[in-house]
Design brief:
With 136 residues, the protein is mostly helical. The chain has helices spanning 13-22, 31-47, 54-95, 100-116, 123-132.
Amino acid sequence: MENKTRKNFWIYPETENKIQAHLKEANCASASEFVEKAINFYCGYLTSKNDSEFLPKLLLNSIDSLIETQLVPVRRLLFKEAVELNKLSQVIATSVDIDEITLSRLQAECQEEVSHINGILGFEKAYQKQRSGDFE
């Protein structure tokens, strides 16, 4: 633990009230800890290249960290889904006889439809489309 030094300084009663009111919110056990954190924060603010960017950078770093934490399970899920989709595609490819022209047309129609519906297509709609002959 670092050595602390005692400093004497004056503060207004209103400032003392603010410190006491925010001790728990700041996760501080004492007014000294609160003042230490406040000074470090303010020094960071003053030494930043552009004072007006200090808080946005701080918030951006916090948001980036939160997003990165949330992306890990999404990436895992997308990987598992891609593996399952690949298995399904391989099984279908071995059991369906389709010529390259029809496959190319199907690819183009699927891309257009998925972009038109923002990627939300249910099996039921695909089944109905196939049965109506729209892809043939």
